[in-house]
Amino acid sequence: MTDVVDADELLRRMRRSRACAVEELRGWQERAEALRSQDPGAAGEARTRGLVYEVVIGVLDEILTPGRRPEGDGRP
Question: Residue by residue, what is the 3-state secondary structure of the chain?
Fold first, then answer.
């Protein structure tokens, strides 16, 4: 079950993964905002899940465009 993937396909997959992570981040941000006044605990969990996607986006950005962000910036 070891498929050989060329560099262009790997790049396409990483870009799709980044786009998916951006959509997930938006969804969790919207959920956190919607729950903020009704259920602060669930809103906090949604914010935490959103932060995870921010990290994933940051890592994929560094892989896809190394050095784009200043080192130690800490922002996605």
Answer: CCCCCCHHHHHHHHHHHHHHHHHHHHHHHHHHHHHCCCCHHHHHHHHHHHHHHHHHHHHHHHHHCCCCCCCCCCCC
**Integer angstrom CA distances of residue 15 from 38, 42, 76:** 36, 30, 15
- Tokens standing for 75? 């922002």
In whole angstroms, give the CA distance from residue 23 to residue 20: 5
DSSP code, position 65: S
pLDDT (tens digit, 0 to 9) for every residue of the chain, 76 residues total? 578 889 999 999 999 999 999 999 999 999 999 999 999 999 999 999 999 999 999 999 999 998 876 666 655 5
- Number of neighbouring beta carbons within 10 Å of residue 69: 14
